Amino acid sequence: MDVTVVVLCGGRSSRFGSDKTRAPFRGSTVLDHLLADLPPDWPVVAVGEQRRTVRDAAWTRESPLFAGPLAAVEAALPLIGTASFALVAGDMPYAGRAVSELVATLDRNPTVEAVAAADPAGRRQPLLAAYRTDAVRVALPSPTANAPMRRLLDALVVTELALPAAVTADVDEPADLAALDEER
Q: Which InterPro entries match (predicted)?
């Protein structure tokens, strides 16, 4: 597939108390667990502080730092040379299992510009989604710093894909990490 994976791993992790993507998880880190589950032949762009990971990635940073996910998407766009990209929050250790299905759903629906995961409660997860790159380049709001992701989604034709709770779960606090560690 003609797709890149963009992984967001540059947040403050204020509720967690330290960088949650570096937190130990199942013999590696939260971020490495996610990266290991991604399709092996898809290029990865990581937006955050560059570090050693289990997988090669092109690294970039949003400007200004900690300006939110839309600014991170804007920073990643120059590094994306594929027709579509999967966007994944780096604090979702099991999300790698879903990116192929999200991208396949996008490919099957030519009039759709994005496919966002929906958790079991029906909440749309824009940080676990597949996007058409050219559509995002056109629809990306300006300025992106500290703007909500819904501004981008509101400008695109979006459908949802229902996914299990463990796949859509993220780590905000240490208790979240403990609960995910019990998932199989």
A: MobA-like_NTP_Trfase, Nucleotide-diphossugar_trans
Q: How many independent structural domains does the chain possess?
A: 1
* 94, amino acid identity: Y
What percent of the chain shows pLDDT beyond 70?
98
pLDDT, tens only, 57-80: 999 999 999 999 999 999 999 999
Residue 1 has pLDDT above 70, yes or no: no
Domain of 22: which CATH number? 3.90.550.10
Please give the DSSP secondary-structure letter assigned to residue 126: E
Dihedral (Cα; 13, 16, 20, 22), 10-degree rounding? 110
| Cβ contacts of 99 within 8 Å, gap of 6 or more | 5, 38, 39, 42, 86, 88, 130
CA–CA distance, 145 with 66 (Å, rounded to integer): 9
Identify the domain containing residue 68 by its residue range. Answer: 3-181
